[in-house]
């Protein structure tokens, strides 16, 4: 693992240290994932302490019930040391995310992808994702105009990761709202 500090933007939230497990300083991390078994054999994680993400190395870990990971950190050998990290958030670098295929994607991985509409062709480059509304939206820029395109399986027809392109079939009238003056 790199010794330079990681920024939160380079990481994804894995879970939270919720409690101590043993007097030897083991802790339980509640994993925020649908596939906890993916993270059973990690070598290290980043723990958010203050304003920094600090690397901690794992001596051993195993799943405890469904989404709890019981972890023995090399740096922590007693309850007092474990107390200092209880409640802390745990992160992993983005490159540790298991790759998604088909029409599933992580929001961070499609920034910079082109959006190609079945009728209008190139409708811009994805500059961000707005997921604060009930419906997540691609925020695309086309020659200085901003388009908001809903993210859902009906609209997305194909994702070409090699060409960094997402093919969409937008509802009638949506694109013309933005592009036709």
UniProtKB/TrEMBL annotation:
Record has Cytoplasm as a keyword: yes
Boundaries of every Ribosome maturation factor RimM PRC barrel domain copy: 108-174
InterPro entries per the UniProt record, alphabetical: PRC_barrel-like_sf, PRC_RimM, RimM, RimM_N, RimM_N_sf, Transl_B-barrel_sf
Gene3D superfamilies: PRC-barrel domain (2.30.30.240), RimM (2.40.30.60)
Keywords: Chaperone, Cytoplasm, Ribosome biogenesis, rRNA processing
Domain RimM N-terminal: 14-93
Subcellular location per the Swiss-Prot or TrEMBL entry: Cytoplasm
Top-level lineage group: Bacteria
Alphabetized SUPFAM superfamilies for the sequence: PRC-barrel domain, Translation proteins
Family: Belongs to the RimM family.
Subunit structure and binding partners: Binds ribosomal protein uS19.
Domain description: The PRC barrel domain binds ribosomal protein uS19.
Function text: An accessory protein needed during the final step in the assembly of 30S ribosomal subunit, possibly for assembly of the head region. Essential for efficient processing of 16S rRNA. May be needed both before and after RbfA during the maturation of 16S rRNA. It has affinity for free ribosomal 30S subunits but not for 70S ribosomes.
Protein name: Ribosome maturation factor RimM
Species of origin: Muriicola marianensis
Upper classification of the organism: Bacteria, Pseudomonadati, Bacteroidota, Flavobacteriia, Flavobacteriales
Gene giving rise to this polypeptide: rimM
């Amino acid at each position: 693992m790199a010794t330079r500090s990681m920024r939160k933007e380079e990481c994804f939230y894995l879970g939270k240290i919720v409690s101590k497990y043993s007097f030897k300083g083991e802790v339980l991390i509640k994993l925020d994932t649908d596939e906890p078994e993916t993270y059973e054999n990690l070598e290290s994680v980043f723990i958010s302490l203050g304003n920094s993400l600090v690397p901690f190395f794992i001596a051993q870990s195993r799943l405890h019930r469904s989404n709890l990971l019981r972890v023995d950190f090399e740096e922590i050998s007693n309850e007092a040391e474990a107390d200092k990290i209880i409640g802390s958030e745990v992160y992993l670098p983005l490159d540790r995310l298991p790759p998604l295929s088909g029409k599933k994607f992580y929001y961070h991985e499609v920034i910079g992808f082109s959006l190609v509409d079945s009728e209008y062709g190139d409708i811009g480059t994805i500059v961000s994702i707005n997921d604060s509304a009930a419906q997540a939206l691609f925020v695309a820029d086309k020659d200085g105009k901003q388009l908001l395109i809903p993210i859902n399986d009906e609209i997305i027809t194909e994702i070409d990761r090699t060409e960094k392109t997402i093919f969409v079939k937008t509802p009638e009238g949506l694109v013309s709202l933005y592009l036709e003056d």
